[in-house]
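Entry 14. Structure prediction run on the chain below.
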Amino acid sequence: MSRFSPRLPSDSLAFALLQAARIHLAVLAGQSLAERQIGRVEAVARPAVQDLVYGSLRRYGRGDFLLGCLLEQPLAAEEIRCLLLVALYRLETRPEAAHTVVDQAVRAAGELAAGRFRGLVNGVLRNYLRREAELLAALAADPLASSQHPAWWLAELQQAYPDDWPAIVAAANAPPPMALRVNLRRGSRDEYLERLAAEEIAAAPVGVVGLALEKPLPVERLPGFAAGLVSVQDPGAQRAAELLDPAPGSRVLDACAAPGGKTAHLLERADVDLLALDLKAARCRRVTDNLSRLGLTATVRVGDCTRPDQWWDGRFFDAVLVDAPCTASGVARRHPDAKWLRRAGDIASFAAAQARILAALWPLVRPGGTLLYATCSLFPAENGEQVARFLARQPLARRRHEEQLLPTAEHDGFYYCLIAKAD
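Output returned:
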């Protein structure tokens, strides 16, 4: 039983609503979802809590607008406000269970503030059900609320993608697809498709070695996952190893490696001498764990990629992958907390950090070698503009290939630029 709610059964919707409300509140207070690990929630409640947290955060702009219409004055009790946000999300997505949702939300409210807000929660949710058509019409007429994005974020997208921003926004507000990367060292994609079919798991080929699942499912249900036959990886992220494409025997650096998906993909494609670097020991352990499951080997080291003097042995790399820290604006549907934790000034902060990383790692690339600069951002200051500034400073750098992937039903949003160093 959770230490948060000792009187609610862990398999009840009330328990899930309460847990989700507390996680939602922590995010709005500045914590990332990674810091508020849903994996710590009781297993029986975890799927419902994850749906409530991720769904309500994707729709936060929508829920915030609705509460503004439903509450006569701002609600000082933030836990109750977040409970209402997750309950409204549940009402919108499960209208057939409206009575149960209201009842369970009221039960959850009984665990907070000595139960003083049970009546308020009941009244607000029932008022929403009575006024639903009117409220949704008002929401649709409000461009900012209906976009479910912060105003500054929406303005950035509209400026950068005047024709595509509505589709980008719609994709960011939808649940993400689930895709796999087949480990070709353990079998072919066709062979794995047959294994999925035998388990009645619908999937279709995507990209070079990817498979798009018709419906997301726990990795425990994937045949051979523990044995390293497949990994979960977005098709857009799979482009990194395909574009860098180091030759067998190459010396390769993955400079921001955790959690190790791109590292593993590089090793699955070719026998290379790979150094996987990341700033924190815990993140490096995730890389090691992923490689171990897949039966792959690399040198994994804790290190600051902007300080090569602390870890570089002086030997040049044939290929360097810079999967740079960024705003994550291209993967907002997977990390819906990012939309509400980021601020407009963060774009410039990330761009400055990215420039420092490029400046530090470029001297490590051998003449004739390549560097792949990658982000999961959509903002030009972190992508094409960043590369343009880098090329202007580096006379030996040549842009070989550049692509901006916008989020679609098939893949997330990524930017890639392959840069060659002249001999």
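The longest strand covers residues 365-375.
Filed with the rest of this week's runs.
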